[in-house]
Write a structure and sequence with these properties.
Elements (H helix, E strand, L loop, with lengths): L1 H18 L9 E8 L7 E7 L4 E8 L13 H10 L3 E5 L10 H21 L3 E10 L1 H12 L7 E8 L18 H13 L12 H6 L13 E6 L7 H14 L3 E6 L10 H19 L1
Parallel strand pairs: 3-4, 3-5, 5-6, 6-7, 7-8
Antiparallel strand pairs: 1-2, 2-4
Helix pairs in contact: 1-8
Length: 293
């Protein structure tokens, strides 16, 4: 009975999206690729800009890769879908990778600079981007939430919603540090040292909690936080499911509109629950229509 009700809900979402014409092609889309927004070689973005409206919403896509890898090119099909089929502006951004001298605050600065540059480029081409949905998976989900929750007052384009896929929400969660005798705990400590800017080891991880909390989206959730879709695998062995639960609980506490799409059989790849995958895709489109129009 429950599955039937959920299936009906998905059908309603799809019908809702079709009713508002998201599949209708737009007249023209300007394509800007590998646009530099800063001095670092990683400071580039791709932007697909429909020209049919003077004011439009932006979908900003942020890639994953443990803040150590990844590329905006993975979103090429999404750029086409969101801009040419749905009629919204869509950008995919690259950012500097973490290391001894670059942490997550620096990367959030990159995104802020990229948004400012995207806003200006769109205006040069007659389009005012007035609001923005951010989305990404894993590290990209984390950065989407961190930026939307902590930089909303200074962003050139106002964050309106987030769709996160297995994104970390609380880097101070001790569940990240798992020591199975193969050095995994030390590896995680190294990555989170770079991420937080606070050097620590597996043994001294408790000393880094404040620094890790400072770059955690969960810290910045309050009554003004934007609506969020939380997609997360219940058997994720990279980003603890406890992170997703904590975000769900805090958003519920503050009365923030959100949807918690928990995949019961999936790990970090979110690939073992067909129903949840279908739901996530429908919610992505529904959030774009609902919060960018």
């Amino acid at each position: 009975m429950l599955n039937k009700l959920i299936s009906l809900f998905i059908s309603f979402i799809i019908s809702f999206c079709n009713f508002f014409g998201i599949d209708a092609p737009v007249a023209k889309v300007l394509e800007f690729r590998d646009i530099a927004y800063g001095e670092h070689e990683r400071n580039t973005y791709n932007l697909y800009l429909p020209t049919g409206k003077e004011t439009n919403g932006l979908v900003l896509l942020i890639h994953g890769g443990a803040w150590l890898g990844g590329d905006k090119g993975e979103f090429d099909s999404r750029l086409n879908e969101v801009s040419k089929e749905m009629g919204f502006a869509c950008a995919a951004v690259n950012y500097r990778f973490i290391n001894d001298s670059i942490d997550l605050i620096d990367i959030t600065d990159d995104i802020q600079l990229a948004v400012l540059h995207i806003k200006a480029l769109a205006l040069e081409n007659g389009v005012n981007l007035d609001k923005m949905l951010l989305s990404g998976g894993s590290a990209g989900g984390h950065l989407s939430m961190l930026y939307a929750y902590s930089r909303d007052e200074v962003s050139a384009i106002k964050p309106a919603a987030v769709v996160s896929y297995c994104g970390p929400t609380d880097l101070s969660d001790d569940a990240y540090y798992f020591d199975n005798g193969l050095g995994d705990g030390e590896y995680v400590a190294q990555v989170l040292s770079w991420a937080s800017g606070y050097k620590h080891t597996f043994a001294t991880r408790s000393e880094a909690k404040d620094a890790l909390w400072n770059v955690s989206p969960l810290k910045y959730v309050d009554k003004n936080t934007v609506p969020t879709v939380i997609n997360h695998g219940m058997v994720d062995d990279i980003v603890p499911f406890s992170n997703a639960k904590a975000l769900d609980e805090k958003m519920t506490e503050y009365g923030i509109g959100h949807i918690f799409n928990a995949y019961p059989n999936s790990g970090h790849g979110l690939n073992n629950d067909r129903f949840n995958e279908t739901l996530a895709e429908s919610l992505f489109k529904m959030y774009i229509i609902n919060y960018l129009t």
